[in-house]
Amino acid sequence: MVKHKEQFLFGAENRPWSSSDWTASDDRVRGGKSQSYLEISGSTARFHGHLDIKTLGGAGFASQRTTAEDTTLDLSGYDGILLDLGKSDGKRYTFILKDELLPRNPENGREQATISWEYDFAVAEDAAQAESSFVFIPWKELKPTYRGKEKEGAKKLDTKSIRRFSIMMRSFFGDQEGDFSLTVKSIKAVSRPSDPERGFGEVAKRKATYHFKNLLRVFALIPIYIDPGLDVMNF
């Protein structure tokens, strides 16, 4: 039987949150006015700021990404990422991985674009003010995108070569804007146990479910992974 195992990436005694590990990557690089911050307070980090969508005509994004450019993590021994979240505003966020970073453009010093692996999530309204809730992100659920558009025919995510982590707030084509706030207690790589009766660590009693964003978007399902009382092993 394969036992559950985990590796803390951020938010543990041996891997505490540090403001030097993260930097803002907002739409200001494209002339926008959105702005994000990562506020470290003890053992938690609060991703917050303001999402402006008027300047760029309905588009907009604000994000925090890791700063290390010479670090490569081998997470192939795990099944995905587990976010341990604190209080949230209930808005829709995006978690992003990169498995490739290219040298900066020698002509202008800018970073060259590579494929991003993205996963959208939102904390259910009845759990948004909870002290702790969880989002499990299986590797297979991360979608490849390039310059903001889904990339068809992309190679498989190389979990032996994880180079960067990001957390993003975006407009989703004008669907959300304004102030935002999401508290993150920890980010870790986790594996599923082979025996479902042993559960899935802290998230054993939480499962994916879906709800409608609103009646006008009845077919636009938003994944919610914070439904207490359900069994994640049947996800």
Describe the fold and architecture.
By secondary structure, the protein is mainly beta. It has one domain: Galactose-binding lectin (Jelly Rolls, Sandwich). The chain is 0% helix and 42% strand. The protein has no helices and 15 strands. The strands form three sheets. Strands 2-5-12-7-8-10-11 form a seven-stranded antiparallel sheet, with no helix packed on it. Strands 1, 3, 4, 6, 9 and 13 form a six-stranded antiparallel sheet that branches. It has a two-stranded antiparallel sheet with strand order 14-15. Strand 14 and strand 15 form a beta hairpin. The chain starts with 5 loop residues before the first strand and ends in a 7-residue tail after the last strand. The C terminus is likely disordered.
In short:
GO terms for molecular function: unfolded protein binding. With 235 residues, this protein is an all-beta fold.
Approximately how much beta-strand content do the residues carry?
A: 35-45%
Q: What's the story with the biggest beta sheet?
A: 7 strands, antiparallel
CATH topology name: Jelly Rolls
Strands of the largest sheet, in order across it?
2-5-12-7-8-10-11
Number of domains: 1
CATH superfamily membership, which one?
Galactose-binding lectin
Helix content: under 10%
Q: Give the rounded overall mean pLDDT.
A: 85
CATH class: Mainly Beta
- Structural class assignment: mainly beta
Shape: globular
Supply the key terms.
single chain; 235 residues; mainly beta; Jelly Rolls; 7-stranded antiparallel sheet; 6-stranded antiparallel sheet; globular; NDUFAF1
